[in-house]
Write a structure and sequence with these properties.
The complex is a heterodimer. By secondary structure, chain A is of the alpha/beta class. Helix content of chain A is 27%, strand content 21%. Chain B is of the alpha/beta class. Helix content of chain B is 35%, strand content 19%. The chains are: A alpha/beta, B alpha/beta.
């Protein structure tokens, strides 16, 4: 039934007739457009694509994609997606989640999806706030965030989504900004990766947490963006600065690059398969360091679904199902007429 | 008559007494292998053609401290030459492997019943652990019963000496020694057990030989020892004849295996693959274990990270075109509740098996109860109706699982199948059904745009919406937990639409009643003075009690429900045709309340919430009181 022949589509083919209901100016619009632009470029087939979401502003996403879609319950999208993919591995599964959905109520499922490495794209829209419930602080909100539930400022430490993902065993970790033109490329890389491709997208909640990422997203602050490319030096601020390794402390440092001579400055070349450096990149404190963006880590290993199907094929090889025989074995005896 | 006539010690052990039915309880430390002994004794009973029922009763602790009262593990079997439906009330024979086992079990033994005790374990230390001030084998505290004691530990050590096992390993053969003696007592063949031991210890022939030697020694001991010695009670031997049963192939089956096989059978009849998402929990894990080995039957099993992921993954699989199944016990079902609501809202087929345990919260994980009926029927937010089915016995669980699959796939709805700890663990003989006699109920996936356009929430004559596999061209659609618009399935919050959808969901589930059999009366008449209405694993004791009462000429009938929700259409009229209705339940009166609500009948409760099944006598007493 699944016709896998790639068909040519346009972004328009991926739009539904449903009215998009996010607040005017919400970053979700830009992400939706970027995903709709990505799908034709990856040769996606609408009927073989499934968007699965949990609960939250971001989780309305499936209603706006002209594909199959399942808007599930709070935090459980990874688990539902696991069932979808195991039932039909031919489907291209995308999980849409937010910081509260993926890291608070659904943290357990996110961890286990990443650990198992189910083949899917996991887009975490991080706006550092609970939008749909009108603005309470979230597990990614910075310390001191004032919100209806923390009128005097939050006191707990936020989690870093990409560090969480790497810690859980993710084999693909990327970061992008809702309105950044590079988002499509990041999504294409995520789709090309076999396994759970974890993408944190900084999404601006214009109503409850506006401009919380302005420190690196504003035009004037673009020098604080470090866009990583495999095999390229880690340069930013118009190539005047770079990231180098401080050998003495085994940590990263910012170095000045004079006359483009980044090698002399000891600037690291980005290797997407280097897990150790990936851990350092996601932990870089913003301010002192730029925000690392793009594909931070990409080193595939066998996926959960492929392992399951391989094992099932191996253990069932040559075994013919015979239910009558199955129920007739064990501790049996015959009563004669 | 399901339980034995009182057993008297015969004058001579070589004289074979004939009994209709005998109840034997093996009790020992949880490390003594009592469940294994009981299981093998069950097999030997089956091979001897007896009908039987068993009741394993083990502690919640994996390895409770040695010799303690709470570490006692027991296995009871009722076997006989007549139809057996319960594990029996009071045992005729108690095998007590230590003081704690004696203390916790002897009070259940029939007056005049036989105690076989391992005197080697009645040490000062073990007596203290069992809180005995004096050795009961040596004072007259057991005078109500017959007592046979010998040093089973020492006799076992002697029997296995040639095999050079360490002391601890050698003592592990005690259960086989005891089994050997029991086989002799009830005139049973040893060979199947010997074959089983050889198979079990195929990789360690020394252990196999040692266990067989212990088994033979126990058997020989019964034959030769103690006979005619003054002052000793001889070991009584008796023969229980084969029960007259329908000819055919039989096997022993536990409820857990029956559910697993029934789900596989149901999916074959529905022509759909099964996805089973589970999370370990006592006493439901055995279903996950059984299904994990049946992959060639189109079964995918997934041990999820928690109960919620287990059901959520099953819902995902159902959405993708397989039948999602999940299984748990009360606390796990509680965690799944929100997701069950999602399955109701998205109208996807799903089977949820609840092997009920005792009590609220963690409660009594290894004990049995049927106190999740409210949870199954009512326990969700919103008006969230779904069909509920309850199995009455291990073998009945097979047909109930098929029925759950049928309703789930035909009506596009989650279905809850209730069993309990007793059904899950207990074994009974099962006449292996001929699968060709089952009517298939193949599902139809919508694979094209129908005339008039595709409506994801359009309905057939059963009010079921179409099942569409993602991947199907032309039928792309989105579903979710937010209220759906009639027909289109788009998000819709309008008051009229919510009313309409709430009514549709209710009517669909109510309509299941048009597609289930009328309620029958399983024993007795369709009207009269008294009806006992039960559900689930109380079937055995209710049935026996009603049978006994009817034998005494009392006007009492037994009705047992399989369909808890919706109920059979004739049930209301049926109940109103009796003067009195009593509902025996292992809860505080849940079915009773539902019956009162549905039919305004004055159903009276008969409740037991001790973690133990009803005794026949308890129900008999209630019948006598009602008709007295």
């Amino acid at each position: 039934m699944n016709d896998m022949t790639p068909i040519k589509t346009t972004p328009k083919d991926w739009e539904t007739d449903q009215e998009v209901r996010w607040c005017p100016g919400c970053g979700d619009y830009a992400i939706l457009k970027a995903v709709q632009r990505t799908m034709p470029e990856i040769g996606g087939t609408p009927e073989n694509t499934v968007f699965v979401s949990g609960i939250g502003c971001s989780s309305r996403f499936p209603y706006y994609m002209e594909t199959y879609g399942f808007h599930t319950i709070h935090g459980r999208a990874p688990a539902v997606a696991t069932g979808v993919k195991l039932a039909n591995p031919d489907l291209d599964v995308w999980v849409i989640s937010g910081d509260g959905d993926a890291l608070s109520i659904g943290g357990n499922h996110t961890m286990h999806m990443l650990r198992r490495n189910l083949d899917c794209q996991f887009l975490l829209f991080n706006n550092e706030i609970y939008g749909l419930t009108k603005g309470q602080y979230s597990p990614t909100s910075r310390e001191g965030t004032r919100s209806p539930s923390t009128p005097f400022g939050s006191v707990d430490h936020p989690t870093k989504p990409c560090a969480f993902a790497l810690g859980a065993g993710a084999r693909f970790v990327a970061r992008a900004i809702d309105v950044s033109k590079q988002l499509v490329d990041v999504l294409k890389s995520a789709h090309a990766h076999k396994g759970t491709a974890f993408v944190e997208i900084f999404q601006n909640c214009i109503v409850y947490n506006a401009d919380v990422f302005a420190g690196f997203t504003e035009k004037a602050n673009r020098d604080h963006q470090l866009w990583l490319e495999n095999g390229k030096p880690m340069l930013f601020a118009g190539d005047t600065k770079g990231i180098a390794l401080d050998v003495a402390s085994l940590s990263l440092k910012v170095v000045d690059v004079v006359d483009g001579n980044w090698e002399a400055a000891g600037v690291l070349v980005h290797d997407v398969t280097n897990r150790t450096v990936a851990h350092m990149l996601v932990e870089m404190p913003f301010g002192e360091f730029p925000m690392a963006l793009g594909v931070l880590y990409d080193d595939p290993r066998p996926t959960f679904d492929s392992a399951v199907f391989e094992q099932n094929a191996a253990v069932t090889k040559g075994k013919l199902p015979n239910l009558q025989k199955l129920i007739s074995t064990g501790q049996t005896w015959t009563v004669d007429a | 008559m399901a339980t034995a006539a009182r057993i008297d010690a015969p004058d001579n052990a070589s004289h074979l007494q004939s009994s209709e039915a005998v109840v034997v309880r093996f009790a020992g430390d949880s490390g003594d292998g009592m469940q294994l002994t009981g299981g093998q004794f069950t097999l030997s009973s089956a091979l001897a053609g007896n009908d039987f029922a068993t009741f394993p009763d083990f502690p919640a602790e994996i390895r409770a401290p040695l010799g303690t009262l709470f570490g006692v593990s027991a296995f009871q079997i009722n076997f006989g030459s007549t139809e057996i439906e319960t594990a029996g009330d009071a045992p005729d024979v108690l095998v007590a492997m230590n003081p704690a086992a004696l203390k916790t079990n002897v009070k259940d033994l029939k007056p005049g019943g036989l105690i076989i005790a391992d005197s080697g374990e009645f040490t000062a230390r073990n007596l203290a652990k069992a809180e005995y001030d004096a050795n009961p084998l040596e004072d007259d505290s057991l005078v109500k019963w017959q007592l046979i004691q010998f040093n089973i530990s020492q006799l076992t050590l002697d029997a296995v000496k040639p095999f050079g096992l360490g002391n601890k390993e050698a003592l592990r053969c005690k259960n086989m020694w005891t089994l050997g003696l029991s086989l002799w007592m009830f005139d049973r063949d040893r060979q199947p057990i010997i074959d089983w031991l050889k198979d079990k210890f195929a990789k360690n022939p020394v252990l196999a030989d040692a266990n067989i030697a212990a088994l033979n020694a126990g058997h020989a001991y019964g034959e030769t020892a103690e006979i005619g010695q003054p002052g000793m009670v001889a070991i009584p031997q008796r023969h229980v004849s084969a029960a007259p049963v329908e000819p055919g192939l039989y096997r022993t089956i536990t409820g857990a295996d029956a559910v697993a096989y029934g789900l596989v059978a149901g999916c074959q009849l529905a022509d759909v693959k099964m996805f089973f998402g589970g999370y370990p929990i006592t006493p439901a894990s055995s279903i996950l274990h059984a299904l994990s080995r049946l992959k060639e039957y189109g079964v995918m099993t997934f041990q999820a990270e928690d109960e919620i992921a287990a059901i959520a993954s099953a819902i995902g699989a159902s959405y993708a075109g397989q039948l999602g199944v999940t299984s748990s016990s009360g606390p796990g079902i509680a965690l799944k509740t929100e997701a069950i609501g999602l399955a109701v809202m998205t109208e996807l087929p799903l089977v949820i098996v609840n092997s009920q345990r005792g009590g609220p919260s963690t409660g009594l994980p290894t004990k049995t109860e049927q106190s999740d009926l409210y949870q199954a029927v009512y326990g969700r937010n919103g008006d969230t109706p779904l069909p509920v089915i309850a199995a009455r016995s291990p073998s009945d669980a097979f047909d109930c699982a098929i029925e759950a699959v049928r309703i789930a796939t035909q009506f596009m709805t989650p279905v809850i199948l209730l069993t309990d700890g007793y059904i899950a663990n207990a074994a009974e003989p099962w006449k292996v059904p001929d699968m060709s006699t089952y009517q298939p109920f193949p599902v139809t996936f919508l694979d094209h745009v129908p005339e008039g356009g595709f409506k994801p929430y359009g309905r057939d004559n059963k009010l079921a919406r179409p099942w569409v596999k993602p991947g199907t061209p032309g039928l792309r659609h989105r579903i979710g937990g937010i209220e759906k618009q009639v027909d289109t399935g788009h998000i819709n919050y309008s008051p009229e639409n919510h009313q309409a959808m709430t009514d549709l969901r209710k009517n669909k589930v109510d309509g299941v009643a048009d597609h289930i059999p009328d309620q029958d009366v399983c024993l007795g008449t369709t009207s009269g003075k008294l009806a006992l209405v039960g559900w689930g694993s109380t079937f055995g004791p209710i049935h026996q009690a009603v049978r006994r009462a009817r034998a005494k000429g009392m006007d009492v009938s037994h009705i047992h429900l399989r369909h808890i929700w919706p109920m059979p259409k004739n049930l209301g009229e049926l109940l109103k045709s009796y003067d009195t209705v009593i509902v025996p339940e292992m809860n505080t009166g849940q079915l009773k309340t539902v019956l009162r609500d549905q039919y305004l009948v004055d159903a009276k409760p008969l409740n037991k919430v001790s973690g133990q099944p009803f005794r026949i006598a308890e129900i008999e007493a209630a019948i006598e009181e009602a008709l007295g």
